[in-house]
Amino acid sequence: MDILQYLLYGFKVAMTPVNIIWLIFGSILGTVLGMLPGIGPTTGIALLLPLTFTMNPTTALITMSAVYYGAMFGGSRSSILLNIPGDGAAVASCFDGYPMAKNGQAEAALAISAIASFISGMLSTIAFVFLALPIARFALKFGPPEYFALMLFALAATASISKDELLKGIISLLLGLMISTVGIDLQSGVQRFTFGIPELQMGIDFIVVIIGIYGMSEVFINFETILKQGTKPIQTKFKRIWITMEQWKRSILPILRETPVGFFIGVLPGAGGTIAAMMAYNNEKQLSKEPEKFGKGAIEGLAAPEAANNACSVGALIPMLTLGVPGSGTTAVMLGALMIYGLQPGPLLFQQHPEIGWGVIASMFLGNVICAIINIPLAGLLVRVLSIPPKILYPIIIGICFIGVYAINMSVVDFYLLIIFGIIGYFMKKYDIPTAPLILACIVGANIEQYFRQSLMLSNGSLRIFFRSGISITLLFLALISIVYPFISDYIKTRKQKPGYKAI
């Protein structure tokens, strides 16, 4: 079966009535969650997880994917109208989106953000179609040492995304690895960190960690200001939401240039939509003949980051589905969901469960069309969600968190864990400690330990097994580079700034 046949099969799966209904629901929910400041796709999917337990895995993943890229569409709404980004990936959309709205061009800003997201989403999905199988076939060469090296690289890259945050990233990473070790060791039968509590013998369910870190902590963070927060005045009446031909001509090249940038960044573990959007914005500002207009309502300054962050969300799904390694915090949550269903994302997923892999890819074509329809003609209606007072919104989120956690194991102990992880998440966000390394380590921690042990068993305890294949050597080298590169880059910059420095 060639790629086209696989894709047609995927459309057959995605276009069943049940999947279409959930695809529309996920797209609308993702757009709404993306609009709400502070919620974002990761929290949205974490809250949605308990609901997906009633679905088959294909429908669940289609719904979560729709929430993911729906949030990328919706994230710019609050950036444009309130100057408050829905999530980190929408920060760059504030720079020129809000000035456009203040200049009386809110309709054009809403339209170009949706158009840019749509074009980049479709182009990225086409790239996904042609890359999925080659990557999955390549990954079949992986054994325990290669998987260990791959996961180590993903953890290192996620923890060291910024030099300034490196120490915090490593703390977050270690905390996640510690959480993953709780429970009975499957090989030795020894209890680890259970403190005599029977419910902890099976380990801590990472869904509880995810909902606590993202859902509960968000409420705690906003609790400090919930009584002071009012509803910011928002424009709800619009003229025709569309752009002029001149605006189209100014936007199309930035969209086409920054889509591959966002897609590539999305494939890299730990990079994420914020970096993609900021890089795209800076690229276009440097390429522009009128850089002084950026920050004052330049439409290309909005089109470029919107294209990049949507392409990034598609790119991040590639390593998750083909290698079993998430490219972002959101895909880490989705990876955890797949494992709950008893599925192991990776190269065999496309062979053993083609309906999941190709059904999700085909649904992304349909989902982008649905999101474009939702975000252009219905934009005036949807932005009214932004006027919901926080004092109503956050109690609803608390209720969803507790119901969702109880639905997993029917255990009251999970309530205490939820609150504990909510408090941990609160302090992590308050002190700018990244949460993605913790979540990723929590999910892959058990696997990385098993792959390490299996490798040592294969080599009779010799660590040289990790240096016998080119793949594992390359991945270990990349992991090392991920850690030391920020320091090398900083050292070179410092040297250049010293008086008397001369380039060789």
Proportion of residues in extended strands:
under 5%
Segments where pLDDT lies below 50 for 5+ residues?
A: none
Radius of gyration: 23 Å
N→C terminal distance: 55 Å
Q: Which percent range fits the helix content?
A: over 70%
Largest sheet: 2 strands, antiparallel
Strand order of the biggest β-sheet: 1-2
Query: What is the number of E strands?
Result: 2
Give me the number of helical elements: 21
Topology overview:
Elements: H1 3-14, H2 17-35, H3 40-52, H4 57-82, H5 91-102, H6 106-139, H7 144-159, H8 166-180, E1 183-184, E2 191-192, H9 206-223, H10 245-267, H11 272-287, H12 300-315, H13 317-323, H14 329-340, H15 349-352, H16 354-375, H17 379-382, H18 390-409, H19 413-430, H20 436-458, H21 470-497
Antiparallel strand pairs: 1-2
Helix pairs in contact: 1-16, 2-4, 2-16, 3-4, 3-9, 3-14, 3-18, 4-5, 4-6, 4-12, 4-14, 4-16, 5-6, 5-12, 6-10, 6-12, 6-13, 6-16, 7-8, 7-20, 7-21, 8-20, 9-18, 9-19, 10-11, 10-12, 11-12, 14-20
Relevant terms:
mainly alpha; globular; two-stranded antiparallel sheet; 504 residues; 71% helix
